[in-house]
Amino acid sequence: MNKQTSEQRTDGAPEYGANHMDRLLTELRSQSSELERLHAIYEELETRNGLLHNEVLRLKRAQRTNVQDLARVAAVLLQISRAKGVALDPVTLGILRRRGWLPTRNRTGAARP
């Protein structure tokens, strides 16, 4: 009986090894496919990230331009207000002060709140 059991193990060993190898190759192929899928997703996300980064830079430039334009408009508003002797309303004065666009001296004729 020992000889038969030994023969069964010997006969089954190559089959077990082949099945095990097949399972490992299948798992490796599956992992390779998953890696390719994840790599494609990563590349897409990298592209989107680059586009978003460029959009943020564009928005920052636009914001800087807007602030410069508004500062220019505020300066002209103050010049006109001074030249015409027209006091600015408290809300406008508050905005100008908050933005740092109001001169330290109150030249507009409006009382400081």
- The rough form would be described as rod-shaped
Radius of gyration from the CA trace?
A: 38 Å
Going by helix content, strand content and strand pairing, the class is mainly alpha
The parts where pLDDT drops under 50 for at least 5 residues are 1-9, 106-113
Beta-strand content bin: under 5%
User: Mean pLDDT score, rounded?
Assistant: 85
- State the distance separating the first and last CA atoms: 108 Å
What percent of residues adopt helix (DSSP H or I)? over 70%
Strand elements, count: 0
How do the strands and helices of this protein lay out in sequence?
Elements: H1 2-84, H2 90-99
Summarize the structure.
With 113 residues, the chain is an all-alpha fold. The protein has helices at 2-84, 90-99.
What does this structure look like?
The protein has 113 residues and is an all-alpha fold. Helix content is 82%, strand content 0%. It has helices spanning 2-84, 90-99. The longest helix is centred in the middle third of the chain and has 83 residues, at 2-84. The model is unreliable at 1-9 and 106-113 (pLDDT under 50).
